[in-house]
């Protein structure tokens, strides 16, 4: 089982340091990593990731520069591009696929794209090997979850974790460390989802301390660490220093 | 039992604008909202309660006022003003805020979240919530709080919490971002009263439905007073709640329909909020529409003297009607709007909101193009803009 799914914001602390960060993550045994594409209006993000996106944009981390920075990297975990829809729509499916071919990106997580809204765009990405990861939130009941998992299907056991997992949103609200989730209802939801699907699950939103991460692992799911890591990296803490108590 | 799919159309026009581009957390609340909205529309007791509140609390029907002195000054034969400025709280926003508050109460929600730009929607939501005993939180950009300070005070007097939003430009776009985040955190208890015909489905359809009372009344009134329809109808458009509210009931008529956007202080990106010429198709705040954006798909900055028009996206239904050539979209600059406000004050003794002044500013253009009888949506009163008028007009 994958022990940890870290999130970092591309361009924060800097685009120049991104290849080194990814190489360090790989050396630490990180199999997959979510990489945030900075957006002007991140409606699902809390203050930490909003500020990180803002800093990254100020420093010139445009979508194209981010993808160019990732091009040709071999020392990297599998990447999941975590993004909002509009920048992708402006690039266009064909051009996006061509750009991603050169990078370690294996899948996309598009926060504001329900599977009903851009079926053609999504089908082209999937056919080219870039599935969109399904999100399951506290407001997603089990029937709805079944439908979402069918419409964004598991490509199968011969594919890497980055393309197979479903993302379980631990609590209502936005990303960030404020208000750590009560893990008891999360445990129930994860168990219910495991009863209808054998797909790998990642759990995120509000997780930061090693204890919470361990509790998620005990559910048989992969914990996501995002805002807390982004904050540490922005403060100059080394990736290894921050992650060594959190790797599981 | 939860609603499992949308039953109303989610898209507008040949371009398929609108849609429901929402995070998964908000999908079930949006499905449930559409279901509650459909059921309320079919429920005669909801309709009766809404009608009664619109009459006794809001003050509907609002008058249609003939403006002969301004008509003569601008070379028109007849000019009629639909007086949304005379509603309780002073703008058309109350029609939608009150209806959604009634719907929220019916859904068992005890808390209301709203965003506001000029503060008119915030004040309307605050008043409706006080009236119905709901707890209200309004998100407002810090720049808008400064330029519309009287409305901040009014909201607070109605017992509403006004949360300052410091991010970005500190205007309406950031306020909507923050309201959407707050709704995601409290969607189990709270309803989000979106103030314009924007956002994910079902908001654009719902807001338009609750605002078409403006045009329905105006159409009947002009037929009664003038004995015929005008040759043109004009309204200002930020997101489009006022524009659609007035213009949609006239869509089947043989007349010209105009919506006026904020031309700001220049033609370059960042200097205006004119989405029809300046915008490209994109997704913001849950819908696909004409959007002012840079080449990277980041939302562009906007500028307008009018906080209520200072928004980077045109509502999807209005954008679709414009692209399908059912409504012509024009722009008026800051200076033109200020000048037009003066005309209405001096000729008719009516102080218009800066938003409505943008529609007034295009009247000479309509006269030049040969229109003679115009019906104009006076969306709100200008008391909130007094300090801007004083400083810009030097009075």
Q: What is the terminal-to-terminal distance of chain A?
A: 11 Å
Mean pLDDT level of chain A: 96
Give the overall pLDDT of chain B as a whole number: 97
Number of helices of chain A: 12
Strand order of the largest sheet of chain A: 4-3-2-1-8-7-6-5
Q: What would you say about this model in short?
A:
Chain A is α/β, with parallel strands linked by helices and 248 residues long.
Q: Can you walk me through this structure?
A:
The complex is a heterodimer of chains A (248) and B (395). Chain A contains 12 helices and 8 strands. With 248 residues, chain A is of the alpha/beta class. Chain A has one domain (5-247): TIM Barrel. Chain A has an 8-stranded parallel β-sheet with strand order 4-3-2-1-8-7-6-5. The N and C termini of chain A lie close together (11 Å). The model of chain A has no long low-confidence stretch (mean pLDDT 96). Chain B is α/β, with parallel strands linked by helices and 395 residues long. Chain B is built from 17 helices and 14 strands. Chain B has a 6-stranded mixed β-sheet with strand order 3-4-14-9-10-13, with helices on both faces. A 4-stranded parallel β-sheet of chain B has the order 7-6-5-8, sandwiched between helices. Chain B has a two-stranded antiparallel ribbon with strand order 1-2. In chain B, helix 5 links the parallel strand 5 (111-116) and strand 6. In chain B, helix 2 packs across helix 4 (93-106) and helix 10 crosses helix 11 (241-247). The chains are: A alpha/beta (248), B alpha/beta (395).
Jot down its keywords.
heterodimer, A: 248 residues, alpha/beta, TIM Barrel, 8-stranded parallel sheet, 8 strands, 42% helix, globular, B: 395 residues, 6-stranded mixed sheet, 4-stranded parallel sheet, 45% helix
